[in-house]
Structure formats: structure tokens, C-alpha cells
Amino acid sequence: MIFFRKPVSTSRDHALNYSQYRVPRVIEMAAKRTKKAHESRTWRVSVFKNKLQYVGRVQAPDKESAAGVAAAEFQLRDHELTRLLIEEVSL
Q1: 3-state secondary structure (DSSP) of residue 70
Q2: What is the pTM of this model?
Q3: Rg of the Cα atoms in the chain
Q4: How far is CA 64 from CA 39, 45, 70, 79, 84, in A?
Q5: For residue 66, what are the contacts with CB-CB under 8 A and spacing of at least 6?
Q6: What's the pLDDT tens digit per position in 51-87?
Q7: CA angle, corner 76, sides to 74 and 82, nearest 5?
Q8: In Å, what is the CA distance from 84 to each residue of 32, 40, 43, 55, 70?
Q9: Residue 31: which pLDDT band, with cuts at 50, 70 and 90?
């Protein structure tokens, strides 16, 4: 048999004192909301040649997949893929 002590301080009667409960209390906190990975975002795609040249906009969930979508959609060559500038567009 387990005996629990009574609360020592009576000045804070409203405060939780876990030693007065025989069963441990569990307080659940709300889960943090995370961004959905499958949400498409808009990305601005530009290529560095002599100057920075605007290519277009693509829809993709992240920056890496935006590079793949841009390569397929705008028919970019391999050497152009290393010179891409991809920025997220805030709507």
C-alpha cells in the first residue's frame, strides 16, 4: 500500500498538488500544427546566363521538386539546372 503525504502549503489551495492524487494526472497539450507536405506552393524560376533571366512560375510542394518541375516544363538543359534561382512567391 502506498501512502501519500498531504500538501504542506495551504496558502495556494487553487494550485495543483500532484501528491494529493492517488492516480497520476495526465495533462494533454494541443499538438502543433504542421504544414501539409502535399500542399502546392508557387515558385519563381530564373536562370543565370549573362544576366538573371526570368523563366516562369511552377507549382510544387518544395524547392527541390520545383527544380524538377521547371526542368520538365521549360525544357531546361543540364548545365542550366546548375544555374537555377528558385524563390517562393507569396500570394
Answers
A1: helix
A2: 0.57
A3: 28
A4: 14, 12, 10, 16, 11
A5: 43, 45, 58, 60, 86
A6: 999 999 999 999 999 999 999 999 999 999 999 999 9
A7: 130
A8: 34, 20, 12, 10, 9
A9: confident
